[in-house]
Design a protein that fits this description.
single chain, alpha+beta, Arc Repressor Mutant, subunit A, 2 domains, 39% helix, 20% strand
């Protein structure tokens, strides 16, 4: 499902068939809802998607293989402008929590027979490394960490498109002035020192220090002429 927000649906897709068909068609449906750009590396063109396809495939497989098929609730996937949301009724094993899930652990599939078929097909591994592979792939692509919310009944996993979300900026321990400024730049394209002062009602010295910190963190860069003609934009 492609959404602009939680209530505005832009596109929808219902996928049926055997699990291999669901796996392939779900990936294609997601690709139709996200963006891709191209980079030339050497003599070859490389497709750069909003989210790494390896992580998307792993998330789809996780949803299908760990779903509780005794409960009549389908896997749900929502594509927003800034995030990709996976929902699956099939929570963690009774003795597990998210801390154990994110640490080194063995494989414990909910549906071992289905899992074995996918393993023999080369789609998944049997060492319990799926979450770690997703995290590494997202990190390599320069994207924020995935977010997991899970209990013993349901499992939610989210990918974020970029670091310019309020939630992620707070994790970086930015102050409220800086978060407001970054979101301003995300919307307007740039910000000057004077505009920073105005939207935050702060002194020029405070604005200068905050903006320098944002540049040192690699979130913003200074452009234009030095002095009154300078401005800051997203890296």
């Amino acid at each position: 499902m492609r959404l602009k927000d939680n209530i505005t649906i832009i596109g929808d897709r219902w996928i049926e068939g055997n699990l291999f068909n669901q796996f392939r068609e779900t990936e294609e449906a997601i690709k139709n809802f996200i963006n891709v750009r191209y980079e030339i590396k050497g003599f070859e063109r490389e497709d750069i998607w909003d989210y790494p396809l390896e992580a998307i495939r792993e998330a789809i497989a996780n949803a299908l293989l760990h779903r509780d098929y005794l409960r009549p609730i389908n896997v749900q996937i929502k594509v927003y402008d800034d995030k990709l949301w996976f929902y699956n009724v099939g929570g963690l094993p009774e003795e597990w929590d998210t801390e154990k899930l994110l640490s080194l652990h063995s494989s414990m599939p909910r549906n071992p027979l289905i899992f074995n078929v996918f393993y023999l097909a080369g789609i998944v591994e049997s060492v319990g490394s799926g979450i770690e592979r997703m995290m590494q792939t997202l990190k390599k692509a320069g994207l924020p960490e995935l977010k997991i919310e899970a209990n013993h009944l349901e499992f939610t996993l989210m990918f974020f498109k970029d670091v310019y979300t309020e939630e992620y900026l707070r994790k970086m321990r930015l102050n409220e002035r800086q978060i407001k400024a970054v979101m301003y730049v995300k919307e307007k394209g740039r910000i000057t020192n004077r505009e920073y002062q105005e939207i935050n009602r702060c002194s020029r010295n405070t604005a200068t220090n905050d903006l320098r910190d944002l540049c040192s963190r690699g979130l913003l860069k200074e452009s234009g002429k030095k002095g009154a003609g300078s401005y800051y934009e997203i890296v």
